[in-house]
Amino acid sequence: PVSNKTYWVVNLKSMSNANGSPASAYWYTSIVDSGTSLIVGPTAFISKVTEGINVKADCSNRASLPNLTVKIDSTIYEIPPSKYVIEAQDNTGKTECIMGLQGANVPIVILG
To answer: What share of the chain is helix, strand, coil (3-state, %, to 5)?
Structure first.
């Protein structure tokens, strides 16, 4: 449920991956932004969520990466690597994969 009508604010409790323990999100305001293609949050939080995940630039390991787990209120959602790994072309036209989660010096978590 939406907890604030100014943004799509949700009660994000935690995020994790199969390789690590959950990163608590209790201290952060979390918003859903459908116009953003990344999940952005405080650097320490994102680092814990992505711990042990190594996205190869050539996309060769994309299918074998773990799902991310997102807990909003009491509901748990799974995000497969096909959704959090971004496949893009560089300026030479070569396809490469990058992590779709980014740490930043921000006090919120943006679920894009």
So the answer is: 10, 40, 45
- The pLDDT score that the predictor gives to residue 105 is 96
Residue 44 DSSP symbol: H
What would the pLDDT profile of 33-52 be if each residue is shown by its tens digit? 988 889 999 999 999 999 99
**3-state DSSP assignment of residue 91:** coil
User: Which contacts qualify for 19-27: CB closer than 8 Å, 24 or more apart?
Assistant: 19/51, 19/52, 19/53, 19/66, 20/48, 20/49, 20/51, 20/52, 21/48, 22/69, 22/71, 23/48, 23/49, 25/109
Cite the DSSP H helix spans in the chain. Answer: 43-49, 81-84
The pTM score is 0.87
